[in-house]
C-alpha cells in the first residue's frame, strides 16, 4: 500500500453498518483504510469531472447507461443523442477492448487492478487503453461526435 499508513496499534477495530464494533487484523484494517481513501478520491474526481456510469453489461454489449436528467429539454435531447452514439461506439469495439474500457472508466478500476484482472503488466494495460481510446475517438468521429458533446454529472 502506497501513501500514508495508520500508526501501529495493539487492536484494530472497525464499526459495522449497524454500529457494532468488530476487532480485525492489521491487514484487514489496512485494506479497509485503503478502500476508504480510494472511495474518497473517486468521489472528489466525480465532483470535479463528472462521471458516466454503466449499470449493466450483458453479453458483451452495453445495455443500460445512466446520466443526470437535469437541465433544459434541448440539453437533455443532445445528451441523449450523444449517449446513444457513445453506446454505438462502444459496441463496435472487440469484446476484450470494450471490457477493459468498462473496467477502467465505468467500474473505476485502477490500471494496476485491471492488470491483475487481465493477467498482464500495468504498462500493457496503459498501452491498450491508449490504443483503444484512439480507436474509440475515430469511431465517434465517424458517428459525428468530435471534441466530446456530453458532460456527465
Automatic annotation (TrEMBL):
Limits of the RNA polymerase sigma factor 70 region 4 type domain: 85-136
| Keywords, ordered alphabetically | DNA-binding, Sigma factor, Transcription, Transcription regulation
Top-level taxonomic group: Bacteria
* Protein name (Swiss-Prot/TrEMBL): Sigma-70 family RNA polymerase sigma factor
Tell me what organism the protein belongs to. Answer: Blautia faecis
Amino acid at each position: 500500500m502506497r501513501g500514508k499508513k495508520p500508526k501501529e496499534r495493539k487492536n484494530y477495530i472497525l464499526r459495522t453498518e449497524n454500529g457494532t464494533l468488530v476487532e480485525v487484523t492489521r491487514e484487514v484494517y489496512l485494506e479497509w483504510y485503503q478502500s476508504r481513501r480510494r472511495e474518497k478520491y473517486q468521489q472528489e474526481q466525480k465532483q470535479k469531472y463528472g462521471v458516466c456510469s454503466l449499470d449493466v453489461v450483458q453479453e458483451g454489449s452495453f445495455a443500460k447507461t445512466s446520466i443526470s436528467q437535469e437541465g433544459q429539454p434541448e440539453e437533455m435531447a443532445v445528451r441523449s443523442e450523444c449517449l446513444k452514439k457513445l453506446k454505438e461506439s462502444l459496441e463496435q469495439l472487440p469484446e476484450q477492448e470494450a471490457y477493459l474500457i468498462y473496467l477502467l472508466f465505468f467500474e473505476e478500476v485502477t490500471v494496476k487492478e485491471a492488470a491483475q484482472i487481465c493477467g498482464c503488466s500495468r504498462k500493457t494495460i496503459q498501452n491498450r487503453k491508449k490504443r483503444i481510446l484512439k480507436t474509440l475517438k475515430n469511431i465517434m468521429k465517424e458517428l459525428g461526435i468530435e471534441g466530446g458533446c456530453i458532460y456527465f454529472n
